[in-house]
Amino acid sequence: MSQCCRKIKDTVQKLASDHKDIHSSVSRVGKAIDRNFDSEICGVVSDAVWDSREKQQQILQMAIVEHLYQQGMLSVAEELCQESTLNVDLDFKQPFLELNRILEALHEQDLGPALEWAISHRQRLLELNSSLEFKLHRLHFIRLLASGPEKQLEALSYARHFQPFARLHQREIQVMMGSLVYLRLGLEKSPYCHLLDNSHWAEICETFTRDACSLLGLSVESPLSVSFASGCVALPVLMNIKAVIEQRQCTGVWSHKDELPIEIELGMKCWYHSVFACPILRQQTSDSNPPIKLICGHVISRDALNKLINGGKLKCPYCPMEQNPADGKRIIF
């Protein structure tokens, strides 16, 4: 009994010691969270940015639904629409449904739906300089080659589909036709073994997603995921700027509407359109202050043009040419 009591006492002391260490660690984690995370993140953006709380909630719900549709989580998106009473038109959902149906088939290495879609949209794909249809035909041809010599005649017959693409993809077609020489010996042991690489399936999924989204007017990446990634980069900077503005009591310098108080570099991945900054006022142009091209070819903002007018004439700040301010033309990037 004495030995058992001693063992129990030692075990209890060990448990108490371990619990003390764990409790200390958990306590430090909580303090670290309180120290590094600001609970008033919403204070970075003024409520005046949104029309109303209901409008804000509706925009967020719509962004989440679009993200779910784009990720192929169709049942989750439908459930969210029902529970949030969000009315989503069928015209909005249809492109995502079609996109996910074809992508699911490609993941199962079924080229049929993608080929059918590419052929039906051939003209519009050509206008986008897309090579999607050729890559789909090439992948089908490679699948026939991988089936062995018994599919040689079928592969030769299918090669007729390459005829419309002969001018743009001559080299690739020559490589595929040259691989027929090694068909009986086995392509996996030939100089053309790279044709059997499984990476072609991942590539065709990326190509289809990019070209189909461009054709259907959809973004390749979910706007919600892009906004979230951008916010992770921008939020710490905005929190610091907000603290400085409050400290210096100059809250009116940032309107929150169409501009940020400081330039935040998000990388080339987030460049979606051309941006022009006026070389005179050092301000980014906007709809209310668009870029204006002068007769001499130099471009400045409209606000800079108005400030440079002297006696009804405008002298270009970069060259000696004088001109009528009314001759300036607005540029749309």
From TrEMBL:
Keywords: Cytoplasm, Metal-binding, Transferase, Zinc, Zinc-finger
Pfam family, one: CTLH
Domain CTLH: from-to ranges: 95-152
Gene Ontology molecular function: ubiquitin protein ligase activity; zinc ion binding
Domain RING-Gid-type: 278-319
GO CC annotation: cytoplasm; GID complex; nucleus
RING-Gid-type zinc finger span: 278-319
Alphabetical list of SUPFAM superfamilies matching this protein: RING/U-box
Cellular localisation: Cytoplasm
A biological process term (GO) from this entry: proteasome-mediated ubiquitin-dependent protein catabolic process
Subunit structure: Identified in the CTLH complex that contains GID4, RANBP9 and/or RANBP10, MKLN1, MAEA, RMND5A (or alternatively its paralog RMND5B), GID8, ARMC8, WDR26 and YPEL5. Within this complex, MAEA, RMND5A (or alternatively its paralog RMND5B), GID8, WDR26, and RANBP9 and/or RANBP10 form the catalytic core, while GID4, MKLN1, ARMC8 and YPEL5 have ancillary roles.
Role summary: Core component of the CTLH E3 ubiquitin-protein ligase complex that selectively accepts ubiquitin from UBE2H and mediates ubiquitination and subsequent proteasomal degradation of the transcription factor HBP1. MAEA and RMND5A are both required for catalytic activity of the CTLH E3 ubiquitin-protein ligase complex. Catalytic activity of the complex is required for normal cell proliferation. The CTLH E3 ubiquitin-protein ligase complex is not required for the degradation of enzymes involved in gluconeogenesis, such as FBP1.
Protein name (database record): E3 ubiquitin-protein transferase RMND5B isoform X4
